Amino acid sequence: MIVLHYTGMPDAAAALERLCSPASEVSAHYFVFEDGRIVQMVQESRRAWHAGAASWAGETDINSCSIGIEIANPGHDYGYPDFPMRQIAAVTVLCRGIQTRNSIPPVRVLAHSDVAPARKKDPGEKFPWRTLWDSGVGHWVKPAPITEDGALLALGDRSDAVAAMQQSLNQYGYGVAVNGNYDSVMHDVVAAFQRHFRPERVDGVSDESTRVTLRDLLAARGRVRTIAARARDLARLAS
Ligand SMILES: [Zn+2]
Asked: pTM of the predicted model, to two decimals?
C-alpha cells in the first residue's frame, strides 16, 4: 500500500533533516516539498519507518507492506495551510508511478490517519483526495450530503446500529472491533474516515451522510479500475 503523511513541522528543511537523522528513528521513501520537488530517501524495495503502530485490513506490520510519502506541510499544530497545487501534482505523479511499479490497487492508497486513527490526523481533511482520484490514484466517491435525516451515533452509544457501522468500517479495512460499543476507538476511526472521505465535518459522530458515503465506497470498491485498465480502455476508444 501507499501511506501518505504530512511532515507536521514548521519548515520543510527541518523535517527533511529529521527524516535523515538515525537518532530520530523515522524515515520514509519519499519527501515532497511545497514546490513539487521530490526527494527519494529509501528504495521502494526496502522498509522505512513511517507508519508506527498501525493496522489495515488485518495487517499490523504496515511498514513492511507500504511505501511512505512525507508531504511537507506544517499540519494541524502549526496553522495547517492548504496544500499547494504543484505539490499535489507532484504527489499524484509519484503515486501513479509507485502504484504501477508495485501493482498497488487504488483502494490501497491511504492516509496515515486511516491506519493509525487514534494517534494521527495526517495528511488531514484538507488533503484533496478527489484530485488524486481524478488522475487514477486512490479511491473516492462523492460524499453524501450532510442532512438532518437518520440517527446520530456517538461516543457512549451501544446498539446493533453501532455494530453494523463497525462491521462496514472493518470491511473497508479500518482497525475497529465489531462489539456494538461506540468507544473511543470507534470515535477515532469514524473521525479518520471523515477526514479522508467526508471532510466537510470531522467530528467522530456517525451521521447518515457518513454511513451513506461508506456504503457507496464499499459498493464501488470492486469496480475501481487500475490505471493500466483505464489506459487500455482509452487505447481501445482511440483505435
Ligand atoms: Zn504520518
From this structure: 0.93
